């Protein structure tokens, strides 16, 4: 059972009603007078803070504020201020304090009543009252299942605290209320953390919970939440160690065992209970039973998934009675299952339409669409109208149709509609009736319609559908192959049904046989046909209806491998203005051949993309236009990424050494928008690199990696960046392009160093230097030794590091690359401090900072501050080190450099631990683990060692040893030099 925070006593009337005029969870406009007790006791009138006087005077004000407007007698106030040891002149003192407060506060706020006093506070004028309302609204939102809103409201409530409540206010009443408010705040924090875990934010919660358990070691609920957060973060050993630490602490301090809930959680973790692995979710209602309709086609016996859509549409149809016609319009690409879903929902909703169900296939995707007049004639006959009574014109038939439906409850399923104009005359339009419409076109112009965009199935739904058709026995024995099949089908229901039907009809085939056939992208569409079902034929219907300009856009935009395309990138591919490109794309969205992923972004379904490429090979003239389109896309990304690089690193000569482009790229008004663009386009940029490794585009592709290096350093895209860099290196080597190969190898050196793979990094950098013509490229000539210098620092080869870094400094200076020179100076400072040359080291770091500062390089200045902070920490100047590292951290956060952010947390944790601030050190170490660090697994192990030292000093010995055991395993796998240090920590002698 989750503990529910208790609102502090003596605050609300017994009814618990929200005061009249106050909106739950949303405080009203700021009143003229405001008061705070969740911190120092303060009062404001308008923007001006009032002088509330001496501590005893503030104690009187606090006692009155916490009575919610009720009158306090003089004796009650004396007890509140002094308790049993009140002075002889206590009553006179109370009157004096009240008189002084009345002079300070606005008229009518402090009133005398029946020999006592009261403070009249407007709604929303007391911070505690606002916090209570926010909590009440959060509890309501959580009960309704809106965890995001509930969490936001609880955070707002917690944000009202400003230090210790009733700070520096004397008296027994203030002491009691302070304890209550502290306890309530802690309960709110526990509730918010519980919601964090429900929403899957377990990794992020570990750091805060580590600090909280250190501050409140006997609070079992916090320990329970920490165990769960660690377990869900894949840190089972630490989770169990938390229980062991807790059990020992409770026995030593209180002589008791952990409460049953904590014991139960430990057992569930030991048993790897699947129920702990994911946040709990409310149970779904069972779907309504499917029944036989009147005119509807039969539903498929293996209908699978789509539970949310079934519920959504069924709810709309079930409430049609008493409402003017309910219309729901489903849109999506061919084969996505619009008809199957609509028929299934219609069967589910049949009981709400006892007067019948009508169905028609409007043939909207074919060459001969159904005419509304003919459809109305068929509907009228089905409703019992004689042929002789059916008029000739569309308008007359529509009017008679509505008249016949009057007073009836009919469901009409209009399948495969071409557009809204075809549908409008066929809508029932009467109270109690409803219509379901399916179309490849989004019917935004169908007034009053509830629009539903149907996407492909989830992987789980797709596998379940495949299993139902093929048979559980065949799929269970080859589950991985089955997953490959449904993925090759793009999770498109029609494709899955075709693939499964082919396999079901061929008993000698294995699932792996089918997966192998579908692995060939060029043959995939041909394989996806069975009987009269074919994916390609479904797409042909939509493609055949396109205008020439639409068809060209459809073909060329499908050539790009990225997950989607921005409008600007699409305009570059098509070599058209933005407005014209947008019109074409939006028209393709309306046909459901292209999806709108987000405003200004467009994407293809995987199978539709294959079809578009097949069309490009077949129809695009001249053939060279395909290569030209991809060249324009590469130019767009390279020019745009170079602009981002130049904005982030003014003065850096890298951009001057990039290949020229014919496209100007995208403009950015500031560095925030530039970084937003780079990170939002990461997947597309890296896909473009891997697609552009031929002889004509290779050098530009490699240079795109150089310009987009922030993607490697941020951590968000580092794995994809590494894969693209490896592919570029191999392509350059195969083509014998030493210029491109050298740059790719130096870039890969940076990637390996970031991941802690220093041996591999060294090999790449040394190979880059040894390539013929390496000295002719100023970029490789300067960056390769700089990277080798960094590797030397990390592997404790500081003399060698100094040699390489001096070479790098000379090369950067020869190229006039001042930011590069500053980087090498800062790196050299770290090598020199390890060699004992402290004064030189600090001087070099400050030189690097001065260069960055002069050039206005905020981000790179953070790197210099980091280097200086490390050097200062190394020589024991902790306060200065913390100042530098904290400023660096802020910049890394602002620039979304997650790996540098995590690494800086690690350095800050080291400083705190060296100054015996173990709780703060543990919190920063946890943040380093959660965020990730430069140095990959090697650095993760170092963080775990540091975290273990912090926990050990806090008395959490079992969890500390769990951290060290994990660190030892990492170092042993890598053969790292730190193995002996960690073994020493785990030895019995060290434990003693």
Q: In total, how many beta strands? A: 16
Subunit organisation of the chains = single chain
Strand order of the largest sheet: 8-9-10-7-11
Strand percentage: 5-15%
- Main beta sheet: strand number and arrangement? 5 strands, parallel
Unreliable stretches, pLDDT < 50, 5 or more residues? 6-30, 281-293
Straight-line N-to-C gap: 39 Å
Question: Which of globular, elongated, flat, extended, rod-shaped describes the shape?
Answer: globular
Counted by DSSP, the helix tally is 46
Structural class by SSE content:
alpha/beta
Output the radius of gyration.
35 Å
Binned, the helix content reads: 55-70%
The average pLDDT score comes to: 86
Structure description:
With 992 residues, the protein is of the alpha/beta class. Helix content is 60%, strand content 6%. It is built from 46 helices and 16 strands. The strands form five sheets. The protein has a five-stranded parallel β-sheet, with helices on both faces. The chain has a three-stranded antiparallel β-sheet with strand order 1-2-3, with no helix packed on it. Strand 12 and strand 13 form a beta hairpin. Helix 11 (307-318) packs across helix 12. The longest helix is centred in the N-terminal third of the chain and has 27 residues, at 172-198. The radius of gyration is 35 Å and the shape is globular. The protein starts with 32 loop residues before the first strand and ends with a helix. The model is unreliable at 6-30 and 281-293 (pLDDT under 50).
């Amino acid at each position: 059972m989750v503990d529910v925070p208790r609102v502090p006593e003596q605050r609300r009337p017994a009814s618990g009603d929200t005061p009249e005029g106050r909106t739950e969870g949303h405080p009203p406009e700021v009143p003229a007078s405001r008061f705070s007790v969740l911190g120092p006791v303060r009062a404001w009138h308008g923007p001006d803070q009032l002088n509330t006087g001496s501590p005893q005077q503030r104690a009187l004000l606090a006692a009155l504020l916490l009575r919610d407007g009720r009158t306090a007698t003089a004796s009650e106030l004396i007890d509140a201020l002094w308790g049993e040891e009140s002075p002889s002149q206590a009553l006179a003192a109370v009157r004096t304090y009240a008189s002084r407060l009345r002079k300070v506060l606005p008229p009518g706020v402090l009133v005398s009543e029946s020999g006592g006093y009261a403070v009249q506070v407007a709604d929303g004028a007391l911070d505690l009252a606002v916090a209570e309302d926010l909590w009440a609204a959060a509890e309501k939102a959580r009960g309704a299942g809106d965890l995001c809103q509930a969490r936001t409201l609880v955070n707002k409530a917690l944000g009202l605290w400003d230090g210790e409540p009733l700070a520096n206010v004397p008296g027994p009443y203030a002491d009691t209320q302070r304890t209550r408010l502290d306890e309530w705040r802690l309960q709110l924090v526990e509730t918010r953390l519980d919601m964090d875990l429900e929403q899957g934010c377990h990794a992020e919660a570990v750091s805060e919970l580590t600090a909280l358990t250190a501050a409140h070691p006997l609070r079992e609920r916090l320990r329970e939440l920490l165990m769960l957060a660690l377990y869900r973060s894949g840190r089972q050993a630490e989770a169990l160690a938390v229980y062991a630490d807790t059990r020992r602490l409770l026995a030593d301090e209180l002589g008791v065992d952990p409460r049953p809930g904590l014991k139960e959680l430990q057992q569930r973790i030991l048993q790897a209970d699947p129920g702990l692995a994911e946040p709990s979710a409310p149970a779904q209602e069972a779907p309504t039973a499917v029944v036989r309709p009147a005119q509807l086609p039969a539903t498929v016996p293996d209908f699978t998934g789509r539970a949310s859509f079934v519920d959504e549409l069924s709810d709309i149809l079930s409430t049609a009675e008493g409402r003017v016609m309910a219309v729901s319009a489903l849109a999506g690409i061919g084969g996505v299952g619009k008809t199957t879903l609509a028929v299934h929902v219609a069967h589910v909703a049949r009981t709400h339409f006892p007067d019948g169900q009508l169905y028609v296939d409007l043939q909207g995707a074919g060459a001969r669409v159904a005419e509304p007049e003919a459809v109305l004639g068929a509907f009228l006959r089905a409703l019992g109208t004689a042929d002789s009574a059916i008029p000739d014109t569309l308008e007359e038939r529509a009017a008679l149709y509505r008249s016949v439906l009057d007073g009836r409850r009919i469901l009409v399923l209009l399948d495969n509609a071409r557009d809204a104009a075809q549908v409008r005359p066929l809508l029932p339009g009467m109270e109690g009736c409803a219509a379901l419409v399916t179309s490849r076109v989004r019917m935004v112009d169908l007034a009053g319609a509830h629009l539903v965009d149907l996407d492909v199935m989830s992987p789980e739904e797709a596998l379940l559908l495949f299993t139902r058709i093929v048979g559980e026995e065949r799929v269970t024995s080859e589950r991985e192959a089955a997953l490959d099949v449904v993925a090759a089908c793009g999770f498109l229901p029609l494709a899955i049904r075709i693939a499964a039907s082919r396999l079901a009809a061929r008993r000698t085939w294995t699932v792996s046989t089918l997966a192998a056939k579908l692995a060939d992208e060029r043959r995939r569409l041909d394989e996806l046909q069975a009987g009269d079902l074919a994916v390609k034929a479904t797409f042909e219907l939509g493609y055949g209806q396109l205008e020439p300009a639409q068809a060209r856009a459809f073909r060329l935009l499908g050539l790009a491998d990225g997950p989607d395309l921005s409008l600007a990138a699409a305009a570059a591919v098509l070599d058209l203005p933005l407005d014209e490109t947008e019109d074409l794309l939006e028209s393709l969205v309306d046909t459901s051949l292209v999806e709108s992923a987000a405003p200004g972004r467009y994407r293809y379904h995987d199978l539709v993309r294959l079809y578009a490429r097949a069309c490009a090979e077949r129809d695009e003239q001249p053939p060279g236009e395909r290569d030209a389109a991809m060249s324009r896309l590469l130019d767009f990304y390279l020019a745009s990424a170079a602009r981002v690089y130049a904005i982030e690193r003014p003065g850096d000569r890298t951009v001057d050494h990039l290949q020229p482009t014919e496209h100007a790229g995208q403009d950015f008004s500031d560095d925030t928008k530039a970084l937003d663009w780079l990170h939002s386009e990461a997947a597309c940029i890296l896909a473009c690199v891997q697609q552009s490794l031929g002889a004509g585009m290779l050098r530009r592709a490699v240079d795109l990696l150089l310009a987009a290096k922030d993607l490697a350093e941020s951590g968000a895209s580092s794995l994809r960046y590494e894969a693209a860099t490896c592919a570029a290196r191999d392509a350059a080597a195969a083509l014998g392009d030493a210029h491109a190969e050298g740059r790719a190898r130096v870039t890969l050196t940076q990637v390996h160093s970031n991941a802690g793979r220093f041996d591999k990094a060294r090999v790449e950098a040394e190979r880059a230097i040894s390539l013929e013509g390496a000295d002719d490229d100023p970029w490789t000539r300067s960056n390769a030794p700089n990277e080798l210098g960094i590797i030397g620092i990390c592997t404790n080869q500081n003399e060698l590091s100094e040699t390489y870094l001096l070479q790098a400094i000379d090369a950067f200076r020869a190229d006039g690359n001042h930011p590069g020179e500053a980087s090498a100076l800062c790196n050299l400072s770290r090598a020199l401090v390890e060699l004992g040359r402290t004064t030189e080291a600090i001087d070099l770091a400050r030189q690097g900072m001065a260069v960055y500062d002069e050039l206005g390089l905020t981000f790179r200045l953070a790197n210099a501050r980091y280097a200086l902070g490390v050097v200062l920490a190394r020589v024991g100047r902790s306060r200065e080190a913390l100042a530098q590292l904290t400023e660096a951290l802020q910049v890394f956060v602002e620039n979304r450099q997650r790996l540098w952010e995590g690494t800086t947390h690690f350095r800050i944790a080291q400083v705190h631990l060296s100054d015996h601030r173990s709780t703060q050190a543990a919190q920063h170490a946890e943040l380093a683990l959660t965020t990730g660090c430069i140095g990959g697994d090697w650095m993760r192990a170092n963080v775990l060692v540091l975290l273990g030292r912090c926990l050990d000093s806090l008395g959490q010995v079992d969890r500390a040893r769990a951290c060290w055991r994990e660190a030892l395993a990492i170092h042993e796998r890598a053969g790292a030099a730190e193995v002996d240090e960690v073994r020493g920590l785990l030895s019995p002698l060290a434990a003693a």
